[in-house]
Amino acid sequence: MICRSVHLILRYSMQQKLILIFLKVTAIIPLWSISSFGQKNIDNVIIKGNIVNISNQIELEDMSAVGRISASNPERYFLPDSLGNFSIKTHVKSPGYFRLGRNIIYLSPGDNINVQIDFNLPEKAKFEGSNWKLNDYLKNTAFPKAGSYCEYSSLIKSTVNETIDAFVDYGKKRHQSLLALPDASPLFIELEEARIKADIINSIVSLTWFYPERHKLSMDSSKRFQQTFMPQIGKLIEPFINKFVNSDYLDLVVYQKIAGYVIKYNKQDSASTSSLTIKEWITASSIFAEMNYQYENADFEKINDRINLIVKEEYRYPLLEFLKSKSIFANGSQAQDFAALNINKKSVKLSDLKGKVILLDFWATWCGPCIQAFPQIEAIKQHFINDSNVVIQSVSIDENTAKWESAVSKYNLGKNTWIINRYAIPEYQLYSLPRIVIVDKNFRVVSFSGFEPSDKEGLIQFIEKLLIE
Question: Keyword Disulfide bond, does the record have it (predicted)?
Fold first, then answer.
């Protein structure tokens, strides 16, 4: 009896353990499955919709402090169809601001949104899906390059003091709209409050140019105003800039724009961590801008030394990566070969032209300045028409072959025209057009981006010099 009781107790106890183990396993497996499979694409963001009044490629531009000093991401370029429809999928690792057309949008990992955007009227944008209320609020964000609130000319009053009061009142209205958002996170609220203050500061600074323009002052009167106004800027922005040193705010474009004023006029400890970070970002931003116009390896060596003085790895690393991509393929480097299709849809290679001086005119059907430059390119072609050692090669980066063929016929571009997949040749950094690249007889790049297509005489002289070397 005792033995049977013990057996039953043990059996019952084992059943309990098995049940508990089963419950634990069944509880763990779904969670494990969700985390395992969910992590795979958790940072994917999908944006689709329609954008009008722009016939160009568009970049979903990362506006963060790091994004602004990093090379463009080809994954985030897209070309809407003829009706303006588009769809793009990209990776976003943490919540942050991006620019789509002229609209600032806020994206978080996993977002899926639909947008309707008019490039000329960002305030008319419509949003559906993730964070739509936040992005609806952001569509009225002032444009820093247009002087923030100076963009609204009605806010520029008769006197500077009245104008500043108008800026502050407008900022208060923006703040009320911000606090009315039901789904905004504390981080979003903090950043947008900082944006309002930064916009006021940027607006005051921008009065240097916008006040004379708004009041249609003569050139002499404008100069007198600027000579009087500019020395007062520090005092005028002091109420807004005091205790405004915070490197987290560098993820706001307008804060990036006024960062120099923040450091110059703020009374906070100049040795604080945020202050030092902002100073480093200003330096990094300056170096990045400079690198965009450098194509000589000798210059890259000097820039490399300056980059290595940056302590913050978050800023130093993207600069070194950008420098690496630039120095691999710079003036004096061997030309990177690439495959293309000619007008007869036959495969060709750049190396097929080895031994000649080659002018590569990169263009696209959606690039207005490229089309305008066709007469100059044709004039250069005619100048060398009897010289078999020179090739003026038109290279389209269009994704739509039919549009390319139509343009070739419409503009009478002739046989020397190719079409390529620009993403297959990242070394050429074809993120902006038009672009002229010149390769010499030794298949070396001798001008990576030194000429505008409109500089007909300069290009002819440069090519003639290469022919006699």
Answer: yes
